[in-house]
């Protein structure tokens, strides 16, 4: 692709969940497809890695299957893969002690009255009106920041009520066995087996179109390239659409009603699973005041792996910090729950700051106050020639892998006419 102009029926920009799902549908329909991915891997904001000393995969992006996720389960079945239920038992740090709690139920209690909202307000403004115990409000804020990666001062209360009311927050959240990487490797191999061309290291910086004709250009492994097609599907993350080189003026209003939530993960392997003695059976730990307020283990799989998670404003305060500083912040957060021993037990750590990643610019999207309907606006095609997919364009399962997969399939159907 270095010198010659490539051509295809459809160009798919991005090889994350949405892009691979779109290409899968298009190649099944017999279309020639060119998939252009800026990274050196597929999967986008799903990134499964292996850590020496661990038999289980380590996820640095999406890990769980949220809600019903019918499309995710269907693809796992086609790929010959299974899902493993996660353990939901939780502990929260209160007055220096780890106490049993269900943060999901506490958060849902806070949002029940929001179902009757007539005018949208911020999550914080809504919460301030409610006569609720301080503990319930605290869990609700922690969940909207951690689970939704949202700023409580900016996120739409209506959107949170709609999401949490749909059961996603409290539902079982299994993991794909072998990690999401196994599913996306299967999808990539499936589309290439049907003739799709997948180009890694292909950064698209310009898209031009008229009805029935698209031209894209950019850099492929550092060299200029161009490609042409009759249709294009853009699957870039919301943060990249807002701040990256590709601009779509027709989408400016929709983009202004959405925000990309910052997320930072630190996956830590210890020499032993010290938490199992202190809190046997617990899979999730919450330290609301810590820099990293949420942790989880791989239960029911037993391994000395602890994942630290920060989302929303807490992640925004940390983003751009050095790897060493982020690991130190994660360890300090662990020590707030378990004392000073864990630091000496750390064997290895992987860090992923999604807001600081140029090809994601954040973890996943949320709706700003007054932004209901923005996802549908963002998803709308341009001249029946340029189509849009990605979790931010899905109105039912936004912020999830299932939403991204659904959106890719929807955009493919639109492109097929």
**Main beta sheet, described?**
7 strands, mixed
Unreliable sequence segments: none
CATH C-level class of the largest domain is Alpha Beta
Kindly estimate the percentage of residues that lie in beta strands according to DSSP.
Answer: 15-25%
Number of domains: 2
Number of helices: 15
Helix content: 25-40%
Count of distinct strands: 20
General shape: globular
Amino-to-carboxy terminus distance: 28 Å
Under the CATH scheme, the architecture of the largest domain is 3-Layer(bba) Sandwich
The CATH superfamily of the largest domain bears the name FAD/NAD(P)-binding domain
Structural class: alpha/beta
Mean pLDDT: 95
Gyration radius, in Å: 21 Å
CATH fold field value of the largest domain: FAD/NAD(P)-binding domain
Walk me through the topology.
Layout: E1 6-13, H1 17-28, E2 33-37, E3 48-49, E4 58-59, H2 70-78, E5 83-84, E6 90-94, E7 97-101, H3 103-111, H4 123-129, H5 134-146, H6 157-165, E8 175-176, H7 180-193, E9 197-200, E10 202-210, E11 213-220, E12 223-234, H8 238-243, H9 252-256, E13 258-261, E14 263-270, H10 275-278, E15 284-286, E16 294-296, E17 305-311, H11 313-318, H12 323-338, H13 342-345, E18 346-353, E19 364-367, H14 374-379, E20 386-388, H15 401-416
Parallel strand pairs: 1-2, 1-12, 2-9, 6-15, 12-20
Antiparallel strand pairs: 3-4, 5-8, 6-7, 10-11, 11-12, 13-19, 14-17, 14-18, 15-16, 16-17
Helix pairs in contact: 1-7, 1-15, 3-5
Which keywords apply here?
single chain, 2 domains, seven-stranded mixed beta sheet, 417 residues
């Amino acid at each position: 692709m270095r010198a010659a102009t490539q051509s295809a029926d459809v160009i798919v920009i991005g090889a994350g969940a949405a892009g691979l799902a779109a290409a899968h549908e298009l190649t099944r329909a017999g279309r020639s497809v060119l998939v252009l991915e800026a990274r050196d891997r597929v999967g986008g904001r799903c990134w499964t890695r292996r850590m020496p000393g661990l038999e289980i995969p380590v996820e640095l992006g999406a890990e769980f299957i949220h809600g019903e996720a019918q499309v995710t389960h269907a693809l796992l079945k086609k790929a010959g893969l299974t899902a493993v239920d996660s353990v939901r038992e939780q502990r929260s740090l209160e007055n220096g002690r780890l106490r049993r709690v269900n943060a999901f139920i506490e958060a849902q209690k806070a949002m029940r009255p929001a179902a009757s909202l007539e005018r949208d307000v911020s999550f914080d403004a809504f919460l301030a009106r409610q006569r609720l115990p301080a503990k319930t409000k605290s869990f609700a804020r922690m969940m909207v920041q951690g689970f939704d990666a949202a700023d409580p001062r900016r996120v739409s209360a209506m959107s949170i009520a709609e999401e949490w009311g749909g059961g996603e927050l409290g539902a079982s959240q299994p993991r794909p066995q072998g990690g999401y990487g196994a599913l996306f490797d299967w999808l990539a191999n499936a589309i290439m087996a049907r003739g799709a061309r997948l180009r890694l290291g292909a950064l698209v910086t310009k898209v031009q179109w008229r009805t029935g004709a698209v031209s894209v250009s950019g850099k492929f492994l550092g060299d200029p390239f161009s490609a042409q097609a009759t249709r294009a599907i853009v699957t870039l993350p919301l943060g990249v659409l807002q701040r990256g080189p590709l601009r779509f003026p027709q989408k400016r209003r929709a983009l202004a009603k959405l925000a990309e939530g910052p997320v930072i993960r630190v996956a830590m392997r210890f020499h032993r699973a010290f938490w199992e003695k202190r809190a046997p059976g617990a899979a999730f730990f919450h330290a609301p005041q810590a820099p990293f307020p949420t942790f989880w283990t791989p239960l029911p799989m037993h391994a000395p792996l602890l994942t630290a998670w920060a989302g929303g404003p807490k992640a925004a305060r940390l983003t751009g910090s050095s790897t060493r500083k982020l690991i130190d912040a994660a360890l300090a957060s662990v020590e707030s729950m378990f004392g000073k021993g864990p630091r000496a037990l750390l064997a290895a750590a992987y860090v992923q700051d999604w807001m600081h990643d140029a090809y994601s610019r954040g973890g996943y999207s949320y709706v700003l106050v007054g932004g209901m309907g923005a996802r549908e606006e963002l998803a709308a095609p341009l001249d029946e020639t340029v189509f849009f997919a990605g979790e931010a364009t899905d109105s039912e399962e936004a912020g999830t892998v299932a939403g991204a997969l659904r959106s890719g399939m929807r955009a493919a159907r639109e492109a097929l006419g």
